[in-house]
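Private note to self, pasted from the team thread so I don't lose it. Backbone tokens:
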């Protein structure tokens, strides 16, 4: 019985975390689709990769926050392998939370 209850609680936590992450993703998409468009200077242009890195950084930080810093759970929320998330964190300069 206790094992079943623990399993149900874990599923509910996962579900809540997934809903939270979906909310964050929706707000980021709304921000980019709404009136908040990226201003591009015709003479200077924009650094596409810098902008992409910014959004990746925000998604990863949000997933880590929702999972209490548990990298393996954050990877699952983001539908990434743990090794891919580790590499992205290193690439983006995101410190591993303890």
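Design output:
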């Amino acid at each position: 019985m206790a094992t079943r209850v623990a399993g149900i609680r874990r599923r509910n936590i996962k579900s809540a975390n997934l809903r939270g992450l979906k909310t964050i993703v929706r707000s980021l998409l709304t921000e980019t689709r709404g009136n908040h468009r990226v201003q591009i200077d015709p003479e200077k242009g924009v650094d596409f990769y810098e902008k992409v890195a910014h959004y990746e950084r925000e998604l990863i930080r949000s997933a880590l926050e929702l999972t209490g810093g548990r990298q393996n759970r954050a990877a699952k929320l983001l539908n990434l392998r743990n090794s891919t998330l580790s590499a992205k964190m290193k690439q983006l300069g995101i410190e591993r939370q303890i």
